[in-house]
TrEMBL record:
Residues 23-189 form the SET domain. This is SET domain-containing protein. Gene3D superfamilies: SET domain, Tetratricopeptide repeat domain. Keywords: Coiled coil. The keyword Coiled coil applies. The keyword Transmembrane does not apply. Pfam families: SET (PF00856).
Amino acid sequence: MDTRPHSLTVPSDDDSPTFIRSELYEERETAGAGIAVFATAFIPAGTRIFCEEELIQVSDEFEQPEIYDTVTSLSEEKQAAYFGLAASSKSMKDVGWINDLRKSCEGEAESFNALVEAHEMAWSIYETNRFTLRLSSGEFKIGIYHKASRLNHSCAPNVFHRYNSRINRMTIHALRDIQPGDELNTSYIDICHPTAVRRQMLKGWGFHCGCSACESSDEMRDLRRKKIEDVMNKLKKREEQWESNHEQWTDKDYAKSVSMIERGMRLMESEGMEETDTLGYLLALAIRYGARNGRKEELMQWTERLVVIERKCLGEDSNEYDAAVELHRIAKEDL
């Protein structure tokens, strides 16, 4: 079974509709977390809640003046949407741009100070609400979204966000059934870490995470996250070894990797981490290694689960879903 990556990239569709399932949620002001998003109706797992076009899409190398110029080139309506977003990040430490701005400006000091403050506000909003996007070309960009930016973080998220490069939209899908009144939370970071590490990673967003995972009194929960972190680190090392000398790998090497992956999957399932960046990633690895280790029956199960996860997290119009379907088709043919 050939399990090399199948990109199946389809030309992007710039005419794909933007839609927000506003009948499923509402935005409310909360104590300590600003505006948050809450379900107003039952949302089944896999539901696409947002399919949103960005306000801006820029290079990760843009600095304050470039962000400000990009934002102020928008329509008045989009500028209002941008400047209405939360701003909790600090200004850049490098203030050389202020001197450059002064050289290009004429006018009173008061108006110049206001211009600097506007630049800093645009930057703070950018840093607080930025999403990393991977385009169909493989290039990475940063996008800012009006509605998706309202989603607060949780280390036990119930929705999943991902830029769909085929339709050029940010999509938000329900990871599990969501009840009316539940807050919709996505994850800003890789959550395969214990609490102390996750909180350190989240400092850049300007808050101390108090989600159910971080505040849990269940010591076993944090221990499981630490074990998941260990498994992921070991698998990354084995991936590097495989990339450099897979010609030398024996059945024993593949069996060892599969055993490690299965352990990681059990831990993730016990933590409810069933989405494409965690369980989906491990399933893809299991398929690659298992195909070389004669695990045909398991391959069918793994590819079936991968199809389900990609459909739930990304939708049937994603390249990842098509790749999973193709792997499942190949697994069926090889039985």
